[in-house]
Structures are given as structure tokens and as C-alpha cells.
Amino acid sequence: MTKQTESESALEKQLKITNTITDNATVAMFMMNDRGFCTFMNPAAEKMTGFTFAEVQDKPLHDIIHHHHPDGTPYPMADCPIDRALPTNNNVRAHQDVFIRKDGSFFPVSCAASPIFENGVPVATVIEVKDLTEEKAAERALRDSEEKFRFMAESLPQMFWTTRPDGYCDYYNQRWAEYTGIPLDRLYGYGWLETVHPDDAQKASNAWNRAVETKTEYQVEYRVRRHDGTYRWHLTKGLPRLNESGEVMMWVGSTTDYHEQKKMVEELVATNEELAASFDREVAASQKAESQRLLLHDLFMQAPALVAIQRGPEHVYEMVNPFYQQLAPGREFIGKTVEQAWPELKGQGFFKLLDKVYQTGEPFVGNEMLAKIDRHGNGQMVDTYYNFVYQAFKEEGRIAGIVTFGFEVTDLVLAKLDNQVKSEE
Amino acid sequence: MLHKQDSLQSLDIKQARVKFILFKSKLRSILYGSSADDSVLSPRDNSLGQWLYASALAKYGHLAEIREIEKINLSISGIAKDLISLYKGGKIDEARSGLTHLDRWEEELIRLLDEIESKA
Which domain of life is it from (chain B) (predicted)? Predict the structure, then answer.
């Protein structure tokens, strides 16, 4: 093998390696001559732009893939830092720009341009281009999701916050500043502690420390000072966000004013306590009235006198005691009007007296009054005499009925009459 | 004037309903951070218990329903204990929403009280 063929074969080998590299590179590679015409593009460059090498021959590369800005304004080649690299002998690195695909769509790129000189003469520029479409989209998605989070957090009616794992508060929504009257820049970090009621500070920090220790959700109530200086009860809830290995990445939480609710609950207890107490009083009063009623009932039933109670304008019998019953032993009284119970008394004046007492409320005292009654229900009328009183009774301020209280004095009157007759004789 | 007051009985029974409502609102106030007395924890000292042991058992002890109410009183005391311990353990929301566990006992209590009123 000659020296020449040896070096040719080495060159061929080198070319093959170079081709393998450029053909398989994921980054797009271009080479331009000193007039800006494309002299080489690798398959990644064709794929990225949509042009084949043959299609980019008749104009400078700038005029094919870089001629306009995304806003539609022209991009003169003289302004292009990539094209300026060679004449200025300047390496361009990580230059962010926007290129145009064959279909006319724009796409973000990052590029490097390296000027090549041969014997001090500028001959070419090597350009590497990285398509940033996906990277930019991911950045945008992240920004969108942050904006979404902020929008959500700002739209919440309660105070919302996030902290770093160590508890340093790195985000508060605007509600905090509005509610506490403290500007956000003073709240960042541990500024919220300033707003906690001194009596609740220990409790709040205990709950927080326990949560940090256990890495679990926590809830705690404490008073927060409002911008007007009043302390109001709040419920704070915090939730840790954990990564795959269970470490806390951040804490997210809300602080909600429930002062009104708490007040209402307390008022409700007071109201219900009052209600229960008044119920107790009412039950006690009813029990007392009931025992008085029983006492009165016993008294009437056992009294050695005639007692009857009649209710209403018709004088309906509600109660008669044994002495009264003895006036007419077989007769039914309860539930009957006085006229039904004593038909034989009609015209003897008693019904009118009852009516008058019921109407006026003035008691009537009868002294040795004669009543002709059918005592045994056998049609035989007998003369009977009574000392008695008709006394109206009231319920709820109005006359409700009449109590009859009396003694039968028939024997006495008859004896008196007898004596009278004898003395006259 | 010597009419027996029919209302006394029903008043006495309605009292139990009021006592239950008082019990519930006392428990609620504890779950909202009030330093109310802890009578809600005791079946004997809570307001329904007072009604049971001060008067109702003596008056209606012969009715099976009153024994059922005694059991309800034990159950609601248990609920009170659970909810207060949830609350004290920092499960504030859970404790408050747990108040609804009393509802079914309240319904049962009303049913039993109606029964007692109709029998007494």
C-alpha cells in the first residue's frame, strides 16, 4: 500500500465517522459559506425545518428559515447574530431565537454559531440548533399552573397560605393583608404569629410543632387580630405535600373566620338553657297547681257539708261530694245541667239565683230556704230547708262556674216550726 | 276549677325533648371551643339524664319505652365522648360534622316520647 492510498483510506475512515456523527446527532447542524448559503445540513436539521438540503440551495439560509420575526416584521440578515458571527469572528453561544419551518410556522430555538477560518480567511459558519418547542411548552405549562394556583388561592374567601418544609411562610393570598391590615412583605416568614392572640399563641405553636413532627394534617383554633384591632376566632387547617419518599415539600393551609358561628352556637346554648329552665318552672308550677287541686278535691270530698261545683252558664255539675249526693241518693249529677238534675226545682227560684250569681259574680247567701224535692225519685215531694252560699269562681280572670256550699237544716226548721206551733197553742 | 290538667303530662314529656335539644347545643358549643361544663359526658348529669333520674323513671318506669330512652341517653353520652376527643385531638371538622350522629337518636327519642304520651 502506498503512502497516498494509506492516507486516503484514513481520510475515508474519518469521513465515515463524521457522517455517522452528524447523521445520528439529535441536534440540528448547518454549515453556511461566507455568503450565508447553506452548504450542509444533517438529517436532524431537515427534520426540524421540514426542508431538504436541495430545497435550501438557491438563497441564503437566513432568507429561508429566519426572514421574519414572529410578530410579522421582517428580520434583515444584517441584524442576525448568526450571520454576523463570521464577519465579526465571534462565537455565538446559547442564543435564543425563533426560526421558521417549511410550513411557515415559527418555533423557538437555542443556537450556537462557530466561525471557521482557513489561512486567516473566513470561509464558513457551523451552526448547531436545538428545538426548544417542548421545553418552552413545559415552561409555559408550569407558568400556567402557577397562575392557576394563584388565581384559585386569590379567589378563596378565606385566608390561604403555603410554607416551606421548615414552616417559613412563602405565600399568603391578598385576603391576609386585607384582613390583618399588615402588608404582605411583613407577613412573609413568621409575620402571621404577630396576629395571633397572646393567650392562643402556645396552643397554635404546639399544634404546628406536632404537625411538623408527624407530617400529618392539622387543625387548630385561635384568635386572629383583625385590622381594626379586634380578635376573632379562626380555624386553621394545614396539609403537608409529600414527595415520593415521604418528605414534606411544603405545607398548604387555610385560616377561616368562624367567629359568628361560634357566637351563634353560644347564643343557642344560652337560649336553650333559658328554654329548658322556663320549661322546668312551668312543669313545677303545674305540679304545684295539681297538688293544690288534689288538696282542694280531698277537702271538698271530706267536708261535713254539701259541696257541688257547677261549670258554665248552664251550671253543669262537675263535682258533688258525698253529702250533696245524699240529698237525692240515686240521682246522677256529673255532666248534667242543674235543670236536668233537678227538674222538680223549676219555678222554685234557685235557677234564677244561680244565673244571677254567674252573671254578676256576687255571692248569694240563702238562709233556711225551702226546696221541694223528690228525694227518693218516687214522685213524692218533700219539703227540705238549707243554709247555703252560691259562690262564683274564676279561671283566667273570668267567671267559670259556681261552688255551692251548704247545710241541710230541714230538721232544725221543722223543729222550730213545731215549737212555734206548740207555743201558739 | 278541680279539672285535672291534661297538659301536665304532655308538658312533662315535652320537657324531655327540650332537655335533648339543650344537650345537643351544649355539646355543639364545646365543639366550637366553649368552656362549657362537661355534664354532656355523664349519662346521669346531662340534661336528659336529669329528666330521667329526677322524675321520669319514677313516673313512667313501668313503661318499656323509658328503658329505651335510658339506652339512648347512654348512646348519646358515648357520642359526646367520641366527638369531644376528636375535637381535642385536632380533628375539628370531623368532630363538628359528627354532630349529625345524634339525629337518629333524636328521631328515636321523639318516637318513644310520643308512645309514652299515648300510654300514660
Answer: Bacteria
A267 has a chain B CB within 8 A of its CB:
no
Structural domain that includes position B55: 2-119
d(CA B47, CA B33): 20
Q: B-chain residues within 8 Å CB-CB of A197?
A: none
pLDDT at B11: 80
Task: Give the closest-approach CA distance of B110 to chain A in angstroms.
Answer: 17
For residue A275, pLDDT beyond 80: yes
B14 neighbourhood in chain A, CB within 8 Å? 279
Q: How many domains does chain B have?
A: 1
Cell numbers of A33, please? 459559506
Query: Do B82 and B35 contact (CB within 8 A), yes or no?
Result: no
When CB atoms are compared, the residue of A268, A287, A309 closest to B8 is A287
Residue that has been written with the C-alpha cell 360534622 in this structure: B97
- Measured distance CA(A46)–CA(A27) in Å, rounded: 11
Q: What is the pTM of this model?
A: 0.65
CA distance linking residue A253 with residue A269, whole number of Å: 31
* Residue A372 pLDDT: 95
What ipTM, to 2 d.p.?
0.85
Query: Which one of B3, B11, B13, B25 would you mutate to disrupt binding with A, by most A Cβ within 10 Å of its Cβ?
Result: B25
Q: What are phi and psi of A286, to 5 degrees?
A: -65, -40
Chain A residues close to B22, C-beta within 8 Å: 269, 272-273, 275-276
Average pLDDT over chain A reads 92
